[in-house]
Amino acid sequence: MNKKIFLVDDSQAFLMYAGLLLKRLNYRVIPCETGLECLRLLNLTEPDAVLLDIHMPSFDGLKILQHIKNDKKTASIPVIIVSHDASSELIEKCMNLGSYDFLTKPIKIDELYRVLERCFYSDANKIRKYLRERFVKKVVVTYRGGHFDFYAETLSAGGIYVRTRDPFPIGSDVELTLPFGEKGSLFLKGTVIYTKKIFEDFMNFPPGMAIQFKGLLDNDVRTLKTYVENLLAEDILASQEECVIEKSQ
Q1: Residue 103 forms beta bridges with which residues?
Q2: What is the DSSP code string of 173-222?
Q3: d(CA 7, CA 19)
Q4: Would you say 5 and 51 are in contact if contact means Cβ atoms under 8 Å apart?
Q5: Nearest-angstrom CA–CA distance, 105 and 239
Q6: Measured between alpha carbons, how far is 101 from 168 in angstroms, rounded to an integer?
Q7: Phi, psi torsion values for 10, nearest 5 degrees
Q8: CB 239 within 8 Å of CB 13
């Protein structure tokens, strides 16, 4: 089941755009426009985490944070502070009060992704280093002198998953040609690290193979990260009336 996040902020623009991004990252989002609304909802349902603004009218984020951490019923809920104010004094105060982490507005997509991965999956050792997004495009994979056209399923700055009924053996070294629209093609090398056969359960992923990129230059990593973030949120970034979310640097 998808993790449930309370998104607490007095800015409707932030609630809209950050909420949409979180939904695309497969989280369930409950928006709260005031701190009091957040406290009322905590009496009805327990979230897996709270993303909390600091400077809000009438009941600011510090009071909400203190309330959550002082109540035995909610003390274990991770609270991630999100604020324009990134002074060292405020960050230290929030951490001393028990916040899980502190993010600065406007939110960078990869920073939000990494914090939530750590928050939810560190104990299970399931943290993904790179943001992954759906990428349904034809790619060319070269293996042992042969060229194979496969449709991809997902893409990250660390690798790609392609669909095929007959995946190559784990450990196979391959070369890939990825279409990048107006930018032409990107040529990469990789190694097969995971396969799924046709007779295995494919409710989450169809039969195919995961290929981990290797020997990437720093520029290749930046290009891939930017491209994946565009796949996820290009329309959000373009339509913001105020800067709530921005690309990674």
Answers
A1: 82
A2: EEEEEEE-GGG-EEEEEEEEEEEE-TTS--SSS-SEEEEEEES--HHHHH
A3: 7
A4: yes
A5: 17
A6: 41
A7: -85, 0
A8: no
Structure letter (DSSP) for residue 4: E
Reported CATH class of domain 4-127: alpha beta
pLDDT in tens, 21-37: 999 999 999 999 999 99
pLDDT interval class at 123 (50, 70, 90): low
- Mean of the per-residue pLDDT values of the chain: 92
The single-letter code of the amino acid at 65 is L
CA dihedral 144, 147, 149, 155 (to 10 degrees): 60
β-pair type (79-83, 101-104):
parallel
How far is the C-alpha of 248 from the C-alpha of 221, rounded, in Å? 12
The residue ranges of every structural domain in the chain are 4-127, 132-235
Encode burial over 18-47: b for 16+ CB neighbours within 10 A, e otherwise.
Answer: bbbbbeebebebbbbbbbeebbebbeeeeb
The tokens of 188 are what?
């990469």
The class level of CATH for 132-235 reads mainly beta
